[in-house]
Amino acid sequence: MQRRDDRAFVTLCEPERANALSAPLVRQLRRALEELRREPQLRSIVLTGTDPAFCAGGDLQMMRTAIEHLGDAPGTTDIWRWIRGEFGAIARLIAHADCTFIAALNGAAAGVGLAWALTCDIAIASERAVIVPAFGKLGLLPEVGTGWALTRHLGYQGAYAYYLRGDHIDAHAALRMGLVQEVVPHDSLLASAEEWCDRVSAMPPHAMEMTKPLLRAVADASWDAALATEEFAEPACFTTEAFASAVRTMLAS
After folding, report:
1. 143 and 223 assigned to the same domain
2. 87 and 50 in contact (C-beta within 8 Å)?
3. Are residues 215 and 167 in the same domain?
4. Which pLDDT tens digits describe the chain residue by residue (253 residues)?
5. Residue 217 sits in which domain range?
6. Same domain assignment for residues 179 and 103
């Protein structure tokens, strides 16, 4: 984890295992994000991986151990507790934090790692990035918010076809599908992530902090409910010095 000014860079770092999500790595990541979330001056967090992969998803060794223990405790909810309490907790933290999360996909992104990337507020990709829909071939379902994200990007049939095909999706195809917002040369990935951090920094803090939950709320709302939400939220912005200063500057120009 690195801190610089009002931003932080968090890197998954088990490259020999394609940054697969072992229990220690997941818990370390969660602690780091919880610590960063409590810092009021932090405006953005970049989540990336150590080459050659972004994240291979869940640790297959850990999955095998879980399977072996199922026979010892039929009906156990331990796996559910882990998925919700660890994988899901990180997804909820990304979604609910006031700061902006930027996923910088430097390589293959699969499983829960992909779910976290899709949960981020912005996802950008190196030209080497690959979206890997691996869960279907493992007999698993879209996980940790992936189904929600895919149906909104691709529609129901598009998401279903994505799951059924299981094809790897390169960075440029992911851009066309709306799964990422930008594709850049591999060596420029973190510089491009920094540019997104700069955009966040240039905005009034309250604007970004209020827009994030508003957009996430209206994504599932009816038009009337979305309009009402925006009508209630907008007047608060008129009371800020940032808005008053911007109006004065525009009128003086």
Report:
1. no
2. no
3. no
4. 899 999 999 999 999 999 999 889 999 999 999 999 999 899 999 999 999 999 998 766 666 665 555 555 555 667 778 888 899 999 999 999 999 999 999 999 999 999 999 999 999 999 999 999 877 777 778 889 999 999 999 999 999 999 999 899 999 999 999 999 999 999 999 999 999 999 999 999 999 999 999 999 998 889 999 999 989 888 888 889 988 888 899 889 8
5. 205-252
6. yes
